[in-house]
C-alpha cells in the first residue's frame, strides 16, 4: 500500500493548523486615569491566531478618550505588555492579552462628561478690585482684616 498522498495531506493540514490564521484585532479601552492623563488599551488573541492590529486605530481611540477628559491628543508610550490569560494542559498559552498605555497630551480643559453633584462657586466680591498702577504700591497692598473682602493701601 502507498500512504504517501495520505501522509502528505495530513502533514499539510497539520502545518496549516500550527501556523495559525491571521485575525484582525481592534484595540479596546480597558483602563486609565484622567488625573494622570493615561489611557490603557488592550486586545486578546488565541493560541492559533496571528493578530493583525492597526496602531492608528489605537491612537484614535486613546485620543477620543483623552478628548473626553479635556486633553487635545495622545501618543503611545512604553511598549506592549503581553499576559497569558489561559494556559493549556501542557503549559502552553491558549489566550494572550496585549496591553498598551497611552499618554494624553495638551493641557486638560473642562470635561465634556456630565458632572455629579452641585458645583461650588467662589463668593462674589462686593466691589471690584482696582488694578494698581504703581508697582511699588502694588507690592505694599495688604488685606484689611477689619473691612472684609476690601483692600487698603499700607503706609509702609
Report the oligomer.
single chain
Q: What's the number of extended β-strand segments?
A: 8
SSE run? HEEEEHEEHEE
Q: Indicate the percent of residues in helices.
A: 10-25%
Mean residue pLDDT: 75
Mass-distribution shape = elongated
Mind telling me the C-alpha Rg? 31 Å
Describe this entry's structure for a reader.
With 156 residues, the chain is α+β, with helices and mostly antiparallel strands. A 4-stranded antiparallel beta sheet has the order 2-3-6-5. It has a two-stranded parallel ribbon with strand order 1-4. A two-stranded antiparallel sheet has the order 7-8. The protein has a domain at 20-105. It contains 3 helices and 8 strands. The model is unreliable at 117-122 and 137-154 (pLDDT under 50).
Labels describing this entry:
3 helices, two-stranded parallel ribbon, disordered C terminus, 156 residues, 8 strands, alpha+beta, 23% helix
Amino acid at each position: 500500500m502507498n500512504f504517501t498522498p495520505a501522509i502528505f495531506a495530513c502533514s499539510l493540514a497539520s502545518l496549516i493548523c500550527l501556523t495559525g490564521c491571521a485575525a484582525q484585532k481592534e484595540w479596546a479601552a480597558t483602563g486609565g486615569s484622567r488625573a494622570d492623563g493615561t489611557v490603557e488599551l488592550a486586545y486578546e488573541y488565541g493560541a492559533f491566531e496571528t493578530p493583525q492590529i492597526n496602531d492608528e486605530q489605537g491612537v484614535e481611540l486613546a485620543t477620543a478618550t483623552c478628548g473626553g477628559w479635556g486633553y487635545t491628543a495622545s501618543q503611545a508610550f512604553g511598549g506592549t505588555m503581553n499576559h497569558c490569560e489561559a494556559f493549556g494542559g501542557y503549559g502552553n498559552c491558549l489566550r494572550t492579552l496585549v496591553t498598551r498605555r497611552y499618554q494624553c497630551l495638551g493641557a486638560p480643559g473642562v470635561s465634556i462628561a456630565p458632572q455629579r453633584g452641585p458645583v461650588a462657586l467662589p463668593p462674589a466680591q462686593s466691589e471690584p478690585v482696582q488694578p494698581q498702577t504703581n508697582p511699588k504700591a502694588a507690592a505694599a497692598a495688604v488685606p484689611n482684616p477689619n473691612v472684609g473682602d476690601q483692600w487698603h493701601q499700607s503706609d509702609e
